[in-house]
Design brief:
Shape: rod-shaped
Mean pLDDT: 80
Strand order of the largest sheet: 4-13-16-15-14-17
Helix content: 10-25%
Number of helices: 6
Order of helices and strands: HEEHEEEEEEHHHEEEEEEEEEEEEEEH
Structural class: alpha+beta
Number of strands: 22
Strand content: 25-35%
Low-confidence stretches: 17-49, 377-405, 410-414
Length: about 425
């Protein structure tokens, strides 16, 4: 057994020496002109350890390689953010009575119900309202009684009437009901409270027959004709955001429904977990189609820069450690070159260093070119050596039967 191990090790060593000799002999030789090879690799000085790639026109067409020029021209930075629709806080209002009393009838009695300015909400019985009505009617009778008196007395009676009217008005009693009290001369048991705003009822905290107190929140109403979108902008993009800037908004719920608003507020702090800054966008919603809680995609257009060196976005391959583009050289090879990037938009990205205007770069299938380059680096140039092609097995390997062999005839099973 020892001799077999020694012989196996000797054969393996000889094989390794032979492969190394072939590699040393063939590594510097160039591929013959017109050879039908799938690809060729050559060293590139631009990026240490990288490999350039050479493809035929057919190979490039097969994997979808396209090219674009490095250009110098204008670039508009566009910032994208995801936001959520919410209520316009300036259009939210709580409706509360200014007097104590009991709800006689509830006229707006469900959450989500729409209300308009001046619409009756409920009727209320309150001893304070009854007393104010009596004082108003008493002041009117007094003015009649002193009609023949002096001017000062008549003026005093008129002041009492105005005082009684103001008290009822300050308690949110509608002017038409005050006029009806004066016209009929009758004290009403219940008076009506109306909505001071229009919108939709978000909260209803009152039922018929309930005793209510002054200042108690009965309704919470929101005007939905204007909404806010609060979105998060990444820290590196906040320099392109300013107050009053026009914002384009699109919505998942309504594809194709494009709306425009403006930035009304930029929050003064950065979220330390997400490294984002929240911005508030005001959007019109006159058709009431948009609903609070919906998601929106915000596009904020920044300032235009006139002379910027750019390449298509698809030309840049980001590895996490560096950014690479493949430049087409004079001999047709595609050489990886590390670049430094600046701002970007939907179509193009700024290049600060690494390429020059007029050069041609790979604009699509960059990942496949990079995989080819990495293959050349991993094999150390051995990909074109005879016998070093890596091919998939033509058929799957047979499965090994895991069952124990049947015992030979005549032998007892242990």
């Amino acid at each position: 057994m020892t001799s077999r191990v020694i012989r196996g090790g000797t054969y393996g060593g000889v094989l390794l020496v032979a492969v190394g000799a072939v590699y040393l002999v063939t590594r510097g030789s160039a591929a013959p002109a017109g050879a039908d090879t799938a690809h060729a690799h050559a060293g590139t000085a631009g990026t240490p350890g990288a490999q350039s790639v050479r493809l035929t026109a057919e190979q490039g067409r097969r994997i979808g390689v396209t090219y674009a020029a490095v250009t110098m021209g204008p670039l508009v930075k566009e910032v994208r953010a995801v936001g959520q629709l919410t209520f316009d806080e300036t259009k939210l209002q709580t409706i509360a009575p200014k007097i104590d009393g009991w709800v006689d009838r509830l006229l707006v009695n469900s959450t989500g119900q729409g209300v308009s300015v001046g619409q009756p909400l409920l009727t209320i019985y309150s001893p304070m309202l009854v007393q104010a009505q009596e004082e108003l009617l008493l002041a009117k009778r007094l003015r009649i009684d002193v009609a023949a008196g002096t001017i000062d007395v008549q003026r005093g009676a008129g002041d009492l009437i105005e005082s009684a009217r103001r008290r009822l008005a300050y308690w949110d009693i509608p002017a038409n009901e005050i006029a009806a009290i004066e016209r009929t001369g009758q004290v009403r048991k219940t008076l009506t409270l109306v909505s001071p705003v229009g919108g939709y009822v978000l909260e209803k905290n009152v039922i018929a027959g309930q005793k209510i107190m002054a200042g108690e929140a009965l309704y919470r109403v929101a005007d939905l004709r204007t909404l806010w979108v609060e979105g998060d902008v990444f820290e590196q993009d906040i320099a392109n955001v300013r107050l009053g800037q026009v914002v384009h908004a699109d919505f998942e719920a309504f594809p194709g429904d494009h709306r425009m608003g403006h930035i009304a507020y930029v929050y003064p702090t950065v979220n330390t977990e997400t490294r984002t800054v929240r911005v508030r966008v005001v959007l019109p919603n006159s058709d009431l189609k948009l609903k609070p809680g919906m998601y929106a995609t915000l596009r904020i257009t920044g300032a235009e820069r006139s002379e910027v060196l750019t390449v298509p976005r698809g030309a840049v391959l980001s590895t996490g450690e560096r950014n690479v583009v493949f430049v087409r050289e004079a001999n047709g090879s595609l050489a990886p070159r590390e670049v430094s990037l600046g701002v970007t938009n939907d179509d193009r990205i700024e290049v600060l260093r690494g390429v020059r205007a007029g050069e041609t770069v790979v604009a699509s299938a960059t990942f496949l070119i990079d995989a080819e380059s990495n293959l050349g680096t991993a094999l150390g140039g051995m990909g074109n050596m005879p016998g070093m092609d890596v091919r998939r097995p033509p058929t799957p390997l047979p499965m090994i039967d895991a069952k124990p062999p049947a015992p030979a005839p005549g032998r007892a099973t242990p």
